[in-house]
Design brief:
- 2 copies of one chain form a homodimer.
- Chain A is of the alpha+beta class and 429 residues long.
- Chain A folds into 3 domains: 196 residues, 2-Layer Sandwich (BirA Bifunctional Protein, domain 2), CATH 3.30.930.10; 90 residues, no CATH class; 85 residues, Anticodon-binding domain (Rossmann fold).
- Chain A is 37% helix and 21% strand.
- Chain A is elongated, with a radius of gyration of 27 Å.
- At the A-B interface, helix 1, strand 1, strand 2, strand 3 and strand 4 of A face helix 1, strand 1, strand 2, strand 3 and strand 4 of B.
Chain lengths: 429, 429
């Protein structure tokens, strides 16, 4: 039979069990943060009508998208969780209770050029708080707080950089640079990655006020902006919101550091007010591991009703890869079983009964029932690094005493099944 | 601005929060069964090379598949979790420890004609035990056991129908019907849905031995097959395996009923030995809610190495829909918050602190910080059916006594924050 080479598409993550266990643990921790914060779960299809998904998209996004026809239907794989959310809100607006606070976890797809740390299929963890009326800055603060809690749960430190896009948009209006708005935004977006000189040089190509603007953009206290005579309503609104947000953040017990940083823009996307982004503290490279911001009129392509909101997103595929490549993850388990139960001679029945008792107590375990010699069973348990084993023979059954062997220390303890449960951290009824 | 109609592709499930909560609870319960049984987690991409995914597929499957090109790459969305598993095993065979026991949860896609209870995007929950050597029938029993545990965890009863394909394949050989094999299999596949007369009538079109074969196929004890003089090795092997499997199942404490049923075939797919399928007991309609079986040579399209195994799959989208349509699910929650904390006047800071304390104790809650009158906050909590509320004003802060109101009974209890935690079922440190 002719063989086909087994291979996975490049840019698509596929992990060995050892790494998948850690990935899933991280996933569970993030979802647990969402649940504890009382967010409602949401799940939308991976495929959508192209006209729905691409209603607002343009340029780069459209080029990256996986789009195709099946019969007469023109469809796309989602490239984020935000557009499907807008669609969802427009469809279900009469069934939802606002403010609607949701989380969604799922894969998104972008067929972009393969590059370091970028995946074409990636897990996103989104939070959004959306309202059909005004929504106070408390919601922005909550989004940032939940974002911080995620990294706390993952035991990784981030620095959260916060900005308000009204400030730069106001400056652009004030300096009459509206026609160069996109270029200025894109330049700001890479400000943290280039030198001050380079930034100034580039800015000078766009405006004669480059020196003045650079000075303003380097301020890291909203109060300091008050010294500048910028006669623009949007600018002052931005400064005021930024001040207010920082005040509200103070009353939240946020464990990660956060700073005002005017280089944070979050691309050209739909954000209109607060924007924020997280960088890992323990990495030299400044790579965004997520962020979010405030948007007006989320569902404007679908409905006349105005929905404003604030959201945040963490990309776990990228984060995991980044932590892994930098040696910041520990892969100690190849299995989630705490215990291997090894039958000796014909004790499978009793082994299975013991296994079920442990399962009921919440202890993950497996019975090594395979038709293999005892030695290869030991070998299997060893190679899989199952932390404990117990061998069940006639003696164990008659005495109801099991020998629990710690595979790391080599120590054994004799105990009954209740003792096994206690030693393995299960719930004794 | 011109509006685009917000709509979801037909055949794609999208739930309101109330139903999503129940869906996710079911999902979590199934995953918990997998974990307790010590299965390793796996995750593979949704997109694969077409040549990889379609290596073995044919006919109907190929027609249903979402296939497209991006640049020069011909790719498909996966239509099940088995072919990607075969690919995974072929790629990672040197890193895996066999027998490899895995679970995988994810969406699969089939663009089939929309029909009742069929989804084009559907969640599958797969278990496989695969070996690079022989694998005893204990593995088949374990798969069936885990399948049963899933429905136990979901608190739904199933009847598990088990067969061994060697029996029918042996009969086909014995009666020299090999050229009609597919037709016989397809007829058997619908046996439970048509009358005995109709089945016989159809079978007569295929063979003159229809009466005899029908009689054999209606036997529901493997022992009863011993009375027939079928001189065929495969047949006897099937009968013997079936007997042995039923013996092994007896020593497992399986809560759901299981029976030998020769009409179970599981389509034309790759199964070679044991096959099984579950039907919900509380439904009149006999619809499969999952099943699985034994396969030889899983990865034969990719590698010369022989991997045999046994697997099972539960389709949650279909199961959920079926239970929902038949009124067998209860949607009592629109939120996962146990408690709404309502600030009175300027107590947001203290409300947030209380919220964090409760989060640390594992109690899902939310602070109603919205700029809305007190009455609309009460209204929000009511509409969302948050089970408990507590209003925090100056008095509560000074006395450190909170009034916990049960929204269903209307009862209030005054207690301190530790008391709140206890009453709401949190962990007191």
């Amino acid at each position: 039979m002719q063989k086909i080479k087994a291979k996975t598409l490049s840019g698509f993550m596929e992990l060995t069990p050892e790494k998948q266990i850690v990935f899933n643990e991280m996933k569970d921790k993030i979802i647990s943060v969402f649940k504890l914060n009382g967010l409602s779960p949401m799940d939308t299809p991976i495929l959508e009508y192209s006209e729905v998904l691409l209603a607002k998209a343009g340029g780069e996004t459209e080029k990256q998208i996986y789009r195709f026809k099946k019969g007469d239907t023109d469809m796309c794989m989602r490239f984020d969780l935000t557009v499907p959310f807008a669609k969802y809100v427009a469809i279900h607006q009469n069934e939802l209770i606002f403010p609607f606070r949701r989380y969604q976890v799922g894969k998104s797809f972008r067929g972009e050029r393969a590059q370091k740390g970028r995946f074409r299929e990636f897990y996103q963890f989104d939070v959004d708080i959306i309202s059909d009326e005004n929504l106070s800055l408390n919601a922005d603060a909550e989004c940032i707080d939940i974002f911080s809690q995620i990294f706390e749960a993952l035991d990784k430190r981030v620095i959260i950089k916060i900005n308000n896009r009204k400030i730069i948009n106001g400056l652009i209006e004030f300096y009459k640079l509206t026609d160069k708005s996109d270029e200025i935004m894109l330049l700001l977006d890479k400000k943290s990655k280039i030198s001050e000189e380079k930034f100034l040089e580039e800015l000078k190509k766009l405006t004669s006020k480059a020196n003045e603007i650079q000075k303003i953009l380097n301020l890291n206290e909203p109060q300091a902006l008050l010294n500048y005579k910028i006669e623009n309503k949007l600018f002052w609104q931005g400064v005021q919101e930024m001040q207010e947000l920082l005040e509200i953040l103070k009353i939240r017990d946020i464990k990660n550091q956060y700073v005002f940083d005017q280089s944070i823009i979050r691309g050209l996307a739909y954000y209109t007010g607060t924007v924020f982004e997280g960088n890992l503290v323990d990495l030299d490279e400044k790579i965004s591991v997520g962020g979010g911001g405030r948007y007006d009129n989320l569902a404007e392509t679908f409905t006349d009703k105005n929905f404003c909101g604030v959201g945040s997103s963490v990309g776990l595929s990228r984060l995991f890869d980044l932590l892994d490549k930098n040696g910041l993850l520990q892969f100690s388990k190849t299995t989630i079983s705490s215990l291997a139960i090894i039958p000796l001679n014909n004790t499978i029945k009793e082994c299975l009964a013991l296994s079920k008792t442990l399962i009921k107590s919440g202890i993950s375990n497996e019975v090594l029932y395979f038709d293999k010699p005892f030695k290869s069973k030991l070998n299997y348990a060893n190679k899989k690094r199952i932390p404990f084993i117990t061998v069940v023979g006639e003696d164990e059954i008659q005495s109801n005493l099991y020998s629990l062997k710690n595979m790391e220390t080599g120590e054994s303890i004799k105990t009954d099944s209740r003792g096994l449960i206690e030693l393995l951290g299960g719930k004794v009824e």
